[in-house]
Specification:
Rossmann fold; alpha/beta; 9 helices; single chain; about 35% helix
């Protein structure tokens, strides 16, 4: 991403409803599934945020042990207040096999630098302990690819089934998978599809025109009252995800363990 996108994310991530929603949902699901192999003894655990960006998810992961964040982009790491963080590629993590009890990978696989999704997942499998846990989120519904994705250097959005197949191919066993950002999905889908109709396919000019549209992410500052209302919506969604799997949404969340775990 460009520096201005990192700056915007760093400015918004502590209070914006979009980031708060993801933290709430990840926290809810990790608490539900982190029940084996020392997961509930934070002082004994090491935790990895692979592709941590500006560090928006680190506050959630810190509850589960000693956290290390890595990212290949130095520009993003400059905004991370938590330490330690390392500049490292998710394909070549500088850690020994089975180093981490909990591995997080949040909105990384969509990125254009990721040429081989399963290669990244195999590397996460390598550093995850046999009784460890992987929690992963990413963009969903390929039909919603828009200039928002282009601004964030995103080249793919996932169907839940295809992401689960990639995880299984990399040696994980999926224990939970669902869409999220569901309750607001109809509104968001209309906005994204309208953008596609007006702007054309991401990376291409509008059909029949030489116009190239500047690409900006959809993240914007939100008025305080609206931000609070949307936060309440995601308290409901997090409660639903504890009990069931949601059939569609702007994002996917998956909890997985190494397949060879007992």
């Amino acid at each position: 991403m460009l520096r201005d996108q990192y700056e915007q994310m760093a400015e918004l991530q502590d209070h914006h409803w979009w980031f708060a929603a993801k933290r709430r949902i990840v926290d809810t699901l990790v608490r539900q599934y982190a029940t084996r192999g020392g997961d509930r003894r934070p002082a004994a655990n090491w935790v990895l945020d692979a592709g941590c960006g500006t560090g928006s998810m680190l506050p959630v992961l810190r509850q589960w042990g000693h956290v290390i964040g890595t990212d290949v982009h130095r520009q993003g790491l400059q905004f991370v207040s938590h330490r330690p963080v390392l500049e490292a590629d998710v394909l070549r993590l500088p850690f020994a096999d089975q180093s981490f009890q909990l591995v997080g990978c949040f909105d990384v696989l969509y990125h254009r630098r990721v040429v081989d999704v399963e290669a990244v997942l195999r590397e996460l499998h390598r550093v995850c302990r046999q009784q460890g846990l992987l929690v992963l989120t990413d963009s969903a519904v390929p039909a919603l690819q828009s200039s928002h994705d282009t601004a964030l250097h995103g080249v793919r959005r996932f169907r839940l089934e295809s992401l689960q197949a990639h995880l299984e191919g990399a040696g994980f066993r999926v224990v939970y998978g669902s869409y999220f950002h569901t309750l607001l999905f109809p509104i968001a889908a209309i906005v994204r599809l309208t953008k596609r109709a007006l702007e054309g396919t991401p990376g291409q000019p509008v059909s029949g025109s030489d116009l190239h549209v500047a690409h900006h992410s959809d993240l914007r500052p939100t008025p305080r009252l609206l931000n609070s209302v949307l936060g309440s919506v995601y308290r409901i969604e997090a409660a639903l995800l504890q009990r069931t799997r949601l059939p569609i949404g702007l994002s996917v969340v998956v909890i997985a363990r190494p397949a060879d775990a007992d």
